[in-house]
């Protein structure tokens, strides 16, 4: 995989090396090839070509600005993967490989909720509804909203493999929430509202992906998930540290008012172009920050109640580490800063971080930790990730 990247860069620079240079200066972000100094490497032309290849790769992988993270098809914006008017065969191959990695994340994410779903089903069938009270419905609802927001984000970018991942996340978490409602562990009115939102969101995303949805309806849906995400995030962060801080809904109320005001101002032309782009990027970033906050909340809970760590599944944490790690190459290839940030954080802190905590509290063996560490280091440190 690393070889295909280097070959792609070499192909991209072949015409540049052959043509006479009209550039008087060179920088990492310029569109001009670097000057050829044969004196620097008189007997090692390959090293010079290799240096150019890596330079081209680093230039290609410059992150998309945070406010442009939700731009559809970021690879088509500029010269990121274009070689004159045709994409090289090597770049297409790497595009295919990273898409396969993202698609492979379906397996761990599909299995992630299965142990909980099976356990809940057994308890329901045996009449042990009290056991389902151990599953926090508010936390599951937060994760569901995050998945639904990211589904809309990736549907707009036409990332098919990740759309499937997020859809699986929405459906699997909704199944758990339905089980909680059956056990009366979740209030019925909240479940009914959640059901309507999930059904509407899946339908709208499906129609939008296949180009069958009115632009105005899709814009309204984006505004809705923007307001919901921005309202939930501060409230969840605040609630994590209760009772060390007063229990209050004030953070959620304030952020809700601010979100509604921002959306209204963006739609009525009261904001600058950068302000409108900022509002458009809120939903994706708030969903990502919700997922990034999950390991913080979990580790804080582990710190306060070490005995509760026995209720964590090491296998589930390993699946979370693997699933998010498989999406890192695609995030790098598409130069998506938001996607890269969320996937890397979740793999390192939510998956591996919780495994480390479980080892510290003697909940997993040293061999399990060593295997997880070796797998993570070999994947994150591989040339296919770092280049």
TrEMBL record:
<dbReference type="GO" id="GO:0005363">
    <property type="term" value="F:maltose transmembrane transporter activity"/>
</dbReference>
<protein>
    <submittedName>
        <fullName>Uncharacterized protein</fullName>
    </submittedName>
</protein>
<keyword id="KW-0472">Membrane</keyword>
<keyword id="KW-0812">Transmembrane</keyword>
<keyword id="KW-1133">Transmembrane helix</keyword>
<feature type="transmembrane region" description="Helical">
    <location>
        <begin position="314"/>
        <end position="333"/>
    </location>
</feature>
<feature type="transmembrane region" description="Helical">
    <location>
        <begin position="188"/>
        <end position="208"/>
    </location>
</feature>
<dbReference type="GO" id="GO:0009941">
    <property type="term" value="C:chloroplast envelope"/>
</dbReference>
<feature type="transmembrane region" description="Helical">
    <location>
        <begin position="244"/>
        <end position="264"/>
    </location>
</feature>
<dbReference type="InterPro" id="IPR034628">
    <property type="entry name" value="MEX1/MEX1-like"/>
</dbReference>
<feature type="transmembrane region" description="Helical">
    <location>
        <begin position="345"/>
        <end position="362"/>
    </location>
</feature>
<feature type="transmembrane region" description="Helical">
    <location>
        <begin position="276"/>
        <end position="294"/>
    </location>
</feature>
<feature type="transmembrane region" description="Helical">
    <location>
        <begin position="131"/>
        <end position="155"/>
    </location>
</feature>
<feature type="transmembrane region" description="Helical">
    <location>
        <begin position="220"/>
        <end position="238"/>
    </location>
</feature>
<feature type="transmembrane region" description="Helical">
    <location>
        <begin position="162"/>
        <end position="182"/>
    </location>
</feature>
